[in-house]
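Anyone else keep sequences and structure tokens together like this?

Example one:
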Amino acid sequence: MVNFIQQVARVWVRENMVSSRGEVAERGLEDLDRYDEVGLFGGRAAVDGPKAEAGIICEVFQPGKKVTTNCFDKAQLYHNLTSIQKYLDGLGIKIYRSVDDPSSGKTMNAFPVRAHANATSDLNAWYSPQDMDLTFGTSGAMSKGKDKWHLASDNDVSSHEFGHLALDVINPVIGSGWSGEGGAIHEGFADALAAMYFNDAEMSEDFLVAMGGEPNEGAGLRTVDNNLKLSKVSTESHDRGRVYSGFLWSIRKELLRQDGPFNLAEKDASDMVLKILFNHAYMYTVSTPSSQDFVNAIVAGIDALAAAGRLGVDAQALKEVVLTEAGYRELSKAVVVPGDNGECVENFDKAKELAGPRSVFGSARVQKYIGGATDVRQQYYRTDKGYMAKVIGGIAVARTSVDGVKVYTSGLRPITGGQIDETVNISLAKAYEMMGVDAGKKLQQANSGYFTATQMTYKTKAEYIQAVKTAQMDYRIAERAIQRLQTRSFTGGPRPELAIIPGSNNLHYEVKVGLGIYYVNAATGDVIFKKDVFI
């Protein structure tokens, strides 16, 4: 083990191999405390992976292949995760200091960002909200020499996954399994972050090469330079997320337009959208956002930036652009100010009255952003026996503005006396047994699904890749659930607790199992599973 304060490494000159045309440069690895054959560890990122030579100046490619080395991947991943955080810091976006949440410890656990390079043979990368870490695959088994592409080497991919982590730290409820448009907003946020940071609309140009195509700097896995509308995309979160990322890229283009009202330089336009992007994440007043909630949050984020003197352009003109683009993309017909429909009270005591006599709010979750702060409180229900059941999706949000403090209550679930059936016929031990059976079935289904995906005929290669990726992820989710249930090792999240889920008046056991969450009806034994992972 060697200790360094400053060291250099070979990294791509742009975001990946194709966009860099294979060119690398030596760059400083800032905040690096130490490195060894396992990884690189510093104040902003902690990257590990398969053992490689304990060096920093690495060979880029494996002998005789255009596939990167373990050593290069880890240095590249560390450099990008550290650099993007430092860049955001310079814009006043200080995520690691933005949230004070003693109940969940989100900020304490999220940083330095933990990332695992080349940790799976899958053609995939993901962020786990429960473990708060990033995992990157190799598209084929390295041990058999079948690895085609190390996703950790692509800065578009690592920036995208970091975007999921950042949004989850800022607002952990909107991407949950009960999230309305939250999944699509998450994917749009992650793509937009990578696009604005690199000033490049194409996502992961290396992907096509890994799939056997020719290098093309103008074509990637996805593009944010699109004119998509909600009615023209599916419900799949990545596909639907293209509308949200495309909306943000269009705002950037309008900021750049030379004959327009703003006429900003490229970097200035991207930086402004980044500030709006992050500020908007604090502005949701519900945990199941609609596309209208997204637009409202964008406008509120702009207003906060303007109030803080950090916008730099005419706020009203920019909001008009936002509303026009949102209308075109079928995201919104008008800006609806939260609270205008009476869903706003003076304090949390008033909010508690609306939630019902058995409702209790959790500890304060204070969120600081450019131009203000919010205080988000989780809703709980107190049972006859005094147990606390988390109301899934139930939140109250206080926001401080020039008009004072308002508490938004549209995210609460009003619960009247006698509404909740507190019958418990299923013990926690029995619930674990039922979850184990379900996870075993899911693993078998995932195995079968992978075989089916590889044997079917598809219209396009993209459809084939998506089917394989989905099957691989389903397998990882079920595999992790079985591991957690067998060992009852829940170090990545809170212990099992009681919950009240949307659409039900029964108590449920909520058990987090790594990449998913089980809900078992305590009265009937019905089992519900929700994925808890971002790809």
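And example two:
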Amino acid sequence: MLADTSLVGNSGISTQKTPTSAMNAKYAPDLFAIENKSELEKQMKDAEALEKRILEDDRIRALEDLNRQGNKGNQTILMPQYKKDERLKVDREFDIPPKTLFIGLGWDEDATTKRKHYRKYFADELENDKEIFPNPSPFQSYGLKRGQSRGNGDSLFSFSKTSKKDASGEASTEQIVGKFKGIIQVQTTEDKEEYNAHKK
């Protein structure tokens, strides 16, 4: 976010853009250099892709470390391990699973409670994981839209901006707000009976 600051002097008032935080100050020159929306969107996508690759590399290294310790990398749920701190007389957890692969759930009062556990999670859709789905995803995906395209005329106040048009050239307010993902099968009753008989 940028803030307007006014500098008042003998020569008058001048307004300049200044970053509102140290983080913004670091990236401010790049933001000032971006003059169109498409370039900004491209840089944001590139940054997201880089972050995704870094996370995936961290997960691969953590998985390799766990596999060297045994079969922990292939387990979905890991239980915490405790040892007694003789000085403080409390149970201390050790050998904690990496946060890039497992998320901790629950809380233990001591080593005998056994409520806390670590559950493996995936940073992306399961069908995008080549180890789980080595073949392309079997699911079909369709965008869920909201808005109107046919019979939607331009507003009286739309002269100041270009309205969105659909394939037929009519004004449209449609936008994708979600995604439907699943397997859709269309078959006749005879085909279904034949398939079920073949399965037996």
